Amino acid sequence: MNIAQALALRGEVESYERQENAWLLEHITKIDSFDLVMKKDQELSSEQEQAYVDGLARIAAGEPLAYVTGSQPFWTLDLTVTQDTLVPRPDTEVLIETVLKLDLPDDAKLVDLGTGTGAIALSLASERPNWSVTATDIYEPTLEVALHNAEKHDLTEVKFFLGSWFGALNRQYFDVIVSNPPYIDVDDIHMQNLASEPERALVAGGRGLADIEHIIQQGKKWLATQGWIVLEHGYDQAEAVQNIFKGAGFKEVRTVKDYGGNDRVTLGQWQN
Ligand SMILES: C[S@@+](CC[C@H](N)C(=O)[O-])C[C@H]1O[C@@H](n2cnc3c(N)ncnc32)[C@H](O)[C@@H]1O
């Protein structure tokens, strides 16, 4: 099988499936996307062909491409991804942009609760080397992937702790608490398409709001004066999340949309 035949194995011309085929083939052959087009007639070795067909079968069975290739680009970083981690989503980059626009001290203290691959903590640490960045997760194998990603990108000053939300931390005050917590209701129809990713990363009680509410209510005790909580949430949860922030006494509560025009990130400031 040559490269052109491999690319045509799945999907219509110019479809997303064809793009995924190209990414998978790039990963297996180590030929970059430009050269892939120029080398259409090049034959795949039998090992490459087998790896490609096996990869397509895993994708057809519902696995994200990132689990097959083992990595996912996020912000400026190439992050290692395993079946113990959520695949970082492009929409989460809106949270990074939102935090970078806040008026914060040069040596701000930030914690990322439920860090997964480390996507949020490591992106912010890479942009703000003077910040003190901490990251937590409840699941040790997940935290090991985040630690690996920190070493991979030479961001070894980021501190990692295992535990449930604030229970992972020693007593201290943060200028910013960020999180992309689980926020999908267990009965949500979208869960059908997310079956390959860990349920602990996705599902929360209280119609998807239980972890968000916990972080906001408990977070007050962990914030410096004028500190912020910045949270990712579902496209239809902005009003509920704003109400939780306001009910808890936060000011400057507002929601930011993602690149698809959906409400995605809500933040509030603790002024007491
Ligand atoms: C939606 S994923 C987000 C991962 C990563 N921050 C990202 O944006 O790609 C939620 C993460 O929260 C972690 N998590 C779930 N429950 C937790 C808890 N009680 N305490 C800390 N982390 C938790 C999961 O293991 C998972 O890594």
Protein traits:
alpha/beta; Rossmann fold; 2 domains; two-stranded antiparallel ribbon; 10 helices; binds S-adenosylmethionine
Blueprint (SSEs and pairs):
Elements: H1 3-7, H2 16-29, H3 33-38, H4 46-60, H5 65-69, E1 71-74, E2 77-80, H6 93-100, E3 109-113, H7 119-127, E4 132-137, H8 140-152, E5 159-162, E6 174-179, H9 210-219, E7 223-232, H10 238-247, E8 251-257, E9 263-270
Parallel strand pairs: 3-4, 3-6, 4-5, 6-7
Antiparallel strand pairs: 1-2, 7-9, 8-9
Helix pairs in contact: 2-4, 6-7
The structure holds S-adenosylmethionine.
Tell me the CATH architecture of the largest domain.
3-Layer(aba) Sandwich
The value of Rg in angstroms is 20 Å
Instruction: Note poorly predicted spans.
Output: none
For the record, what CATH class of the largest domain applies? Alpha Beta
The number of distinct β-strands equals: 9
Protein described:
This protein is α/β, with parallel strands linked by helices and 272 residues long. The protein has two domains: 59 residues; 200 residues, Vaccinia Virus protein VP39 (Rossmann fold), CATH 3.40.50.150. 35% of the residues lie in helices and 20% in strands. Strands 5-4-3-6-7-9-8 form a seven-stranded mixed sheet, sandwiched between helices. It has a two-stranded antiparallel sheet with strand order 1-2. Helix 2 runs antiparallel to helix 4 and helix 6 runs parallel beside helix 7. The longest helix is centred in the first third of the chain and has 15 residues. The model has no long low-confidence stretch (mean pLDDT 96). S-adenosylmethionine (SAM) binds next to helix 7 and strand 4.
